[in-house]
C-alpha cells in the first residue's frame, strides 16, 4: 500500500464583505475579546465564546459537537465564523456552505451534506519515504534523435541527468522523462534544494539553497540549508489532506494522470464516482493508518450559514452523521426566530430547527450593534476599501445605521465615494450621503412607500 500525493480541494472563502476580518481579536494573555482588534468591533461575548471553541478544537476536545450562532441579520454571525476560520489557521479544515446549497436538481441533498462533512475532516499523514534529496548542481536533459520523426526538430528528451549534492557527498541520477516533467512543473533550477520520491517520482522543491543567498538579495524565496546526510535516504513526509480530497483522488473525477491516489492498489483502473462504498473503503484504510500511527485525525469545522434553509430530511441526516467516528465540529448560523421547519407542514420550532437537533447545540447569541459600533465598523470597511469619510459624514453614517441597518449603511459607502468623485471631493461628505440615501431606500422606507402606494402594485 502506498500513500502518494493527493491534491487538495479546499473551498476558497471568497466573501469580499468580510475581507477586513483577520481573526477573533482576542487578547492572548487574558483570553478576553479586545474592543477593536483583527478587524472586529464589539460583539465581545460571542467572540470570546467562539475563541474558546477554537481552543477546544485545537486540543481535539470538540469533535462531533455543534455551535449555533443566533442573532438578527447584520449582527456579525458570518463575520465571526470567518474570523474563526482565520483563527484556526490553514492546518484545520474549515468548510463554509450556505443552507440553500443542498437544493440541486442533480445531486441529492444528503450527498451534498456528506461531501461538505468530508471536506471538514482533515487527516495528517506522516510517512517515511525513500527519497533522493539535495541541492541541484546539474540538471541536463539528454536528447536523442527520434527515429520515427522526419522533420528537422526530431529530437526528444529521453532522460534527464540530475546531480544532487548534500553536505556529505553527491550523487548523479539518471531520471526518466516523466520525472523531468515533474521537475519542470516544480520550476526547479540549479541551486534549488529538492527531493524526488523514489516510488512515485514526484518532485518537491524545498527552497533555494542558502549558498546562493548572497547572490540574490532581492529574491522573495525561501532559503534552506544544504541537506545533511546521504542523498539517498528516508525522509519523513507530512501531508495535510481532507477525507474529501481522498474521495476525489480515488474516484473518476480525480482520475487524471496528475492525480495520484492514496490507495493506488485499491480500485486500480476501475475508478468510480464517489459512492458510499468508496467512502467506506477510504474510511477503512484511514482507520487502519490511524491505528498504525501513520495518520492522525484533524476534525475541522463545517460552517452552515442560514441553517434554517435546511429541511427535516437534512437535519435528520446531519444528526446521524454527527454521531459517526469521523464527525467534524459544526458551526451553524441563523437569523430566524420561531418559524416553521422546512419540509414539514406546520411544525414551528425555534430557529426552524427540530427540537432534538437544537438540544445538542451550544447556542451563542449575537446582538444588534449600537450607533457607536456601527460607526466604527463603517470606518473599518472604509479603510479596507480605501475610502475617506469626513467627520460630519461619519456621524451621519452612524445615525443611518441606528435607524436602518448596518448592511444598508455599508451599501451606501461605494455609491457615496463615486458621487464624491463626481462632485470633485476626495472624501465623502454629508451632501453625498443625503443624496445617495434618497436614491436607494432602506427596507423600512421602502415598506412605507409600498403601503402608501399599494393601489399601484399587483396583488
Ligand atoms: N463585529 C464586527 N466587526 C467588524 N465588522 C463586522 C462586525 N460584525 C459584522 N461586520 C461586518 O458587517 C457586515 C454584516 O455582517 P454579517 O456577518 O454578514 O452579518 P450576519 O451574518 O449576522 O447577517 C459584514 O460585512 C461583516 O463583515
Ligand atoms: Mg450571514
Largest sheet composition: 8 strands, mixed
Percentage of residues assigned to helices: 25-40%
So what's the oligomer here?
single chain
Number of strands: 17
Mean pLDDT level: 86
CATH topology of the largest domain: OB fold (Dihydrolipoamide Acetyltransferase, E2P)
Element pattern in H and E: EEHEHEHEEEHEEEEHHEEHEEEHEHHHHH
Secondary-structure-derived class: alpha/beta
CATH second-level architecture of the largest domain: Beta Barrel
Q: pLDDT under 50 segments (min length 5)?
A: 255-261, 264-269
- In the CATH hierarchy, what is the superfamily of the largest domain? RuvBL1 DNA/RNA binding domain
Query: What's the shape?
Result: globular
Q: Bin the strand percentage.
A: 15-25%
Total domains = 3
Give a list of the ligands.
adenosine-5'-diphosphate, magnesium ion
CATH class of the largest domain: Mainly Beta
Amino acid at each position: 500500500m502506498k500513500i502518494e500525493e493527493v491534491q487538495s480541494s479546499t473551498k476558497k472563502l471568497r466573501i469580499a464583505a468580510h475581507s477586513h476580518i483577520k481573526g477573533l481579536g482576542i487578547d492572548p494573555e487574558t483570553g478576553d475579546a479586545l474592543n477593536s482588534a483583527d478587524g472586529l468591533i464589539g460583539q465581545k461575548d460571542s467572540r470570546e465564546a467562539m475563541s474558546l471553541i477554537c481552543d477546544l478544537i485545537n486540543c481535539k476536545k470538540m469533535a462531533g459537537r455543534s455551535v449555533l450562532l443566533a442573532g438578527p441579520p447584520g449582527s456579525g454571525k458570518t463575520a465571526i465564523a470567518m474570523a474563526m476560520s482565520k483563527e484556526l489557521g490553514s492546518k484545520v479544515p474549515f468548510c463554509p456552505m450556505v443552507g440553500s446549497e443542498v437544493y440541486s436538481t442533480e445531486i441529492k441533498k444528503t450527498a451534498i451534506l456528506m461531501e461538505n462533512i468530508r471536506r471538514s475532516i482533515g487527516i495528517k499523514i506522516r510517512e517515511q519515504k525513500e527519497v533522493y534529496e539535495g541541492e541541484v548542481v546539474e540538471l541536463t536533459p539528454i536528447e536523442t534523435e527520434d527515429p520515427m520523426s522526419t522533420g528537422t526538430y526530431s529530437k526528444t528528451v529521453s532522460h534527464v541527468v540530475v546531480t544532487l549534492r548534500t553536505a556529505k557527498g553527491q550523487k548523479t541520477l539518471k531520471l526518466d522523462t516523466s520525472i523531468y516533467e515533474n521537475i519542470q512543473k516544480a520550476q526547479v533550477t540549479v541551486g534549488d534544494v529538492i527531493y524526488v520520491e523514489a516510488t512515485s517520482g514526484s518532485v518537491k522543491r524545498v527552497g533555494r539553497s542558502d549558498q546562493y543567498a548572497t547572490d540574490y538579495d532581492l529574491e522573495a524565496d525561501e532559503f534552506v540549508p544544504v541537506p545533511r546526510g546521504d542523498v539517498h535516504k528516508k525522509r519523513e513526509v507530512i501531508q495535510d489532506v481532507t477525507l474529501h480530497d481522498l474521495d476525489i483522488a480515488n474516484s473518476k473525477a480525480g482520475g487524471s494522470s496528475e492525480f495520484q491516489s492514496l490507495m493506488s492498489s485499491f480500485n486500480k483502473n476501475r475508478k468510480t464516482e464517489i459512492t458510499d462504498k468508496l467512502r467506506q473503503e477510504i474510511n477503512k484504510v484511514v482507520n487502519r493508518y490511524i491505528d498504525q500511527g501513520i495518520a492522525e485525525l484533524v476534525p475541522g469545522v463545517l460552517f452552515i450559514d442560514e441553517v434554517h434553509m435546511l429541511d427535516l430530511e437534512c437535519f435528520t441526516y446531519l444528526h446521524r452523521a454527527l454521531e459517526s467516528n469521523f464527525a467534524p465540529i459544526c458551526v451553524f448560523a441563523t437569523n430566524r426566530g420561531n418559524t416553521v421547519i422546512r419540509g414539514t407542514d406546520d411544525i414551528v420550532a425555534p430557529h426552524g430547527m427540530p427540537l432534538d437537533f437544537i438540544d445538542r447545540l451550544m447556542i451563542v447569541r449575537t446582538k444588534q450593534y449600537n450607533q457607536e459600533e456601527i460607526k466604527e465598523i463603517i470606518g473599518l470597511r472604509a479603510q479596507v476599501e480605501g475610502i475617506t469619510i469626513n467627520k460630519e459624514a461619519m456621524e451621519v453614517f452612524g445615525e443611518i445605521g441606528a435607524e436602518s441597518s448596518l448592511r444598508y449603511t455599508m451599501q451606501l459607502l461605494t455609491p457615496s465615494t463615486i458621487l464624491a468623485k463626481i462632485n470633485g471631493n476626495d472624501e465623502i461628505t454629508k451632501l453625498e450621503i443625503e443624496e445617495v440615501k434618497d436614491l436607494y431606500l432602506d427596507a423600512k422606507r421602502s415598506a412605507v412607500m409600498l403601503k402608501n402606494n399599494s393601489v399601484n402594485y399587483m396583488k
